Amino acid sequence: MAKTKELSKDTRNKIVDLHQAGKTESAIGKQLGLRKSTVGAIIRKWKTYKTTDNLPPSGAPRKISPRGVKIITRTVSKNPRTTRGDLVNDLQRAGTKVTKPTISNTLRHQGLKSCIARRVPLLKPVHVQACLKFAREHLDDPEEDWENVIWSDETKIELFGKNSTRRVWRTKNAELHPKNTIPTVKHGGGNIMLWGCFSAKGPGQLIRVKERMNGAMYREILSENLLPSARALKMKRGWVFQHDNDPKHTARATKEWVRKKHFKVLEWPSQSPDLNPIENLWRELKVRVAQQQPQNITALEGICMEEWTKIPAPVCENLVKTYRKHLTSVIANKGYITKY
């Protein structure tokens, strides 16, 4: 609703004069061209406070001046990893003593909140441009094409604990801006490594990789799991296989193996795992596993296998249906990966 124009002091005084003259609220409203509710509000204020002037705001005055608000807002905009303690010290040097909760409340009023920084791959300009090129080239691909893709990837699942976190000040929907993320290098360790695949029709095979994977082991995984997944998912003739540009995937022997099997492979930009919708299934799996609270590696592996098969097919279907929207977001963000 649009904000109404404030009545002039003369109009407010006229309402009181007419009220004292014995006129009803309806009659005053008609005479002055005002709503009855507006007239009633002015009269009630006059009866309660003996004035029609604007009252001072209730509550304690703000502890941080408008200049102080600008200082801390500008600071966290330049460096989202600035801590509340740093901001308290900045204001103290400027002559204002405040607490950390006051900093939080002030920034929240500016549309900023403290969030855990997302971990994303370290992207060089060439990687960003490759993602942008991929998104533009495939933006108009029909939905049926994406439905005929088998998406694959590896992930690690930890038994206990979680990776260290950093908090950043950011606005809504800005969690994947480079300033608000923590760059990571793929596969920095973990308790078990998994390879899996899926399509719009549901999850495919999921296996545990028990040793350090090399090209020969990767080809063995594909040989034993890719075609069975394609058959189980009832993929159409000419289905396309997606995997990233890991050296094991792009090795000459792997490419030759894929060529001999007559698999069509989706060309994929480097360092762009979040372009792959399977990342959403990994998050779904990790949440499900964490809820089960496995106590040893054997239990962890068993729960992963069980929960993977329980992921509903409609979840997979929706990830593929919204893929074009995801590419649109990548283009809008000039090549930076966005939240699915």
TrEMBL record:
Domain Tc1-like transposase DDE: 149-299
Residues covered by the Sleeping Beauty transposase HTH domain: 1-52
A Pfam family reported for this protein in Swiss-Prot or TrEMBL: DDE_3
Domain of life: Eukaryota
Annotated SUPFAM superfamilies: Homeodomain-like
GO biological process terms on file: DNA integration; DNA transposition
Boundaries of every Transposase Tc1-like domain copy: 72-140
UniProt-recorded Gene Ontology molecular function terms: DNA binding
InterPro entries, per database record: Homeodomain-like_sf, HTH_SB, RNaseH_sf, Tc1-like_DDE_dom, Transposase_5, Transposase_Tc1-like, WH-like_DNA-bd_sf
PANTHER family: SI:DKEY-77F5.3 (PTHR23022:SF135), TRANSPOSABLE ELEMENT-RELATED (PTHR23022)
Protein name: Transposase
